[in-house]
Amino acid sequence: MIAASMACPICDDTGWKAIDVDGVRRMVRCDCWRSAITSTLVDEARIPARYQNCTFDTFETNHDSLRDAHRRATDFATRFPVVERGLLFYGQPGVGKTHLATAILRAVIRTRGARGRFYETSELLRLLRETYGTGTRVNEMDILRPVMEADLLVLDDLGQEKTSDWVQETLGLLINTRYASRRPTIITTNLADSPDVSDPNSIAFRVGLRTRSRLLEMCDWVPMSGYDVREIGPHPTPDELARYHAKSPAAQTGGRTRPPSKVQDVRPRAQLKSRIPTGRDPRMELKWTGGKAGT
Known about the structure:
By secondary structure, the chain is α/β, with parallel strands linked by helices. It has helices at about 30-45, 65-80, 95-110, 120-130, 140-150, 165-180, 205, 210-220, 230, 240-245, and strands at about 15-20, 25-30, 85-90, 115-120, 150-155, 185-190, 220-225. The relative contact order is 0.13.
């Protein structure tokens, strides 16, 4: 037989408790109710299990850029929701970009009661593709609406997916909707901000010039450099660091990334024309069935 859980000793599971305010007895929400709501919000955020223990306290600051990123992340969480811009963490794999992003998300859920969402970009796009031609009742807006309307969205590994017109238009719609609604977004990416839009490892190449421009305005870009924690492990010894720098392919780049720069478009002019005719609603390219985006 499964033992029944004990009732809250303060409110007897009613969710309300009595307090005295200036001699007047009032009913307010019990702490157990707030704890349950927070737990539900954390579950709904979809933070992967492998990042459940990612907090500000467990983040390794072994490089100047990582200390700066940690400072900016904690400052963002402290000021939320009074923030005007999101954050875009960029750098080599394994330096802790997703760690900081999930630490921010969990902090604002627990301290502010925010509605948050975490999505790996490639997973979000896969879920959207699966709505096409499946005969199910799930459509694009069933998936996109909570992503567009979240108080805080973490979009992980931007640019990891193979680019296409559909990918650029879908990401552009999502990012532009959050931009227009002034909802902050945390983004992580391994891509550089190359001035050459023909560079397949550049943000402009993967998401398009227009979306890159939106990201420059709606996010503070935060570079992150250091060793790959996934490869070398936490708290490496001096000997382990020496072997890493001598043999690891990841160390050969030195974790260098380019800061945001003015993009010089090198493509032929004919290729710059939008594939969507002027006046055509880009949502139609997504088989849009809903009304105004974000509503």
